[in-house]
Amino acid sequence: MLRRFLIPATLLILTASSAAAQRVEITPFYGFQFAGEFEDRFDEGDFDGVDVDEGETYGLFLNFALDPGGPEGGQIELMYNRQETELQANRLFGPDVADLDIEYWHLGFLYQWAPGQARPYVVIGLGATRLESPGFESETRFSWSGGGGVKLMFNQNFGVRFDGRIYSTIIDEDDDVFCDPRGCFSYDDDTFLVQLDVKGGLVLAF
User: Fold this and answer.
1) Cβ–Cβ under 8 Å, residues 107 and 77
2) Interior/surface letters 143-157, b for 16+ CB within 10 angstroms, e for the rest
3) Which of 108, 195, 204 is nearest to 153 (CA)?
4) pLDDT tens digits for range 46-72
5) Residues 128/1/123/143 CA torsion (nearest 10 deg)
6) How many structural domains does the chain have?
7) Residue 159: CATH number of its domain
8) In a domain, 20, yes or no
9) 169, exposed or middle or buried, with CB in 10 Å at 0-12, 13-18, 19+?
10) Does a structural domain hold residue 185?
11) Domain span including residue 85
């Protein structure tokens, strides 16, 4: 588990070294990912009755200030988030269980207020979700996230951060056709994986 975290963490930290002119924040975090749900717009997809278990999540934030002269304002954010969980398929004679690893790789924009000790913020991100389960090929899908939180800074270089987000991943895109006596109509019947999490971490700023 630690080795899988260190590889993306090292890549993000190396990216930070190329932005020496900017103020950089590195935040390793740990948190809790609530049970995920596959949402089908018309409840006709292959994922009906399939859920993702709740569990721990961990990862790294890497933030670059757009205005290095001060902490207030916008930041570009890179996020890596990993959850090791299980996939539950609720069947008539009991649930089918499979291990599932979920990774979010997102590039986002964060805006924070108040250049003082407490800095509330909102954030939105776009990127990819990687799904991996033993015995199956890994899948990578487009996803987005949004949320907010607060940073509590002890001084210019150290603080803590509390964050909450919603994640939505496009799992399956289908075009279906509906016919009635007046004719036939096509519509999108897409399936999404939706998750929520809360997490906290130590902010290292330089």
Assistant:
1) yes
2) bbbebbbbbebeeee
3) 204
4) 455 568 889 999 999 999 998 766 666
5) 20
6) 1
7) 2.40.160
8) yes
9) buried
10) no
11) 2-173
168 and 143 in contact (C-beta within 8 Å)?
A: yes
Q: Is 24 helix (H, G, I), strand (E, B) or coil?
A: strand
Residue length of the chain: 206
Residue with tokens 């924009």: 109
Q: Is 142 helix (H, G, I), strand (E, B) or coil?
A: strand
Nearest-5° Cα angle at 68, 64 to 69: 155
DSSP 27-93: EEEEEEEPPEEEEETTS-STTTTEEE--EEEEEEEEEEESSTT-SSEEEEEEEEEEEEEEEEEEETT
- Is 200 a member of any domain? no
Q: Please tell me whether residue 110 adopts helix, strand or coil conformation.
A: strand
**Cα atoms found within 13 Å of the Cα of residue 76, Cβ hemisphere only:** 11
Residue 35 lies in a domain: yes
pLDDT tens for each residue of 88-124: 765 544 555 788 899 999 999 999 987 788 999 999 9
